[in-house]
Amino acid sequence: MRADNPTQKVHVPSTTQTRRGLSSQAVVDSIPQNHPTLKFSASSQMRLALTSTATTSARFGVSGRATAAIVSSVLHDIGLVTEEDTVHVVDKSKIRRERQKISSDLKKTQITEIEGLYYDGRKDETAFVDNINSKRYRKTRLEEHISLIAEPGPIYVAHVAPKSGKAEDKAESIVSYFVEKGIDTTKLKVLGADGEPTNTGWQGGSMREIELKL
After folding, report:
1. What is the Cα–Cα distance from 194 to 203, expressed in whole angstroms?
2. How many CB atoms within 10 Å of residue 28?
3. CA-angle at 99, arms to 31 and 160, nearest 5°
4. pLDDT tens-digit profile of 122-146?
């Protein structure tokens, strides 16, 4: 092998090894030092920047454990992970730390006015405590959650929980949030949402309701 070659050949496990799955530690044999995504310390250990991975998995409700398994499997499939020489582990703790960092960064981002608003909702299982005969019972129920994104940016603003998935309730929860936080909407020029009828109806859609309330 030439001395100036920045990479080394990566051993790809056999089919039998692949079917058994990865060991508890994910391995990277060797990759280019100037790789645009992977970061290296002085000891040449690989440090994965998993910001986008953590953000996307949180958005779709994928657990940290499942996300770590998916990341390791992808690295395995493209030949960057083997079972022989352990350099770095991608586990649920890594995903949790990335999510905590993202959450901390978002809290530091405060907006005072908004020019473009995009929102998207989905129903999530939400835990709550029900008091029955002086006893407390932990239960779950489906709740509508709406994520608010400001443009230009994009900048994550917050998520709100309307009383129901009806257009009027969606609009009320969004407008009430802006009023409560003192966010100026007088410069709002653009509204965007997914194409379901409760959002886009020209008479009774949530977008129309927001326009009327503002």
Report:
1. 17
2. 20
3. 145
4. 888 778 788 888 888 888 888 888 9
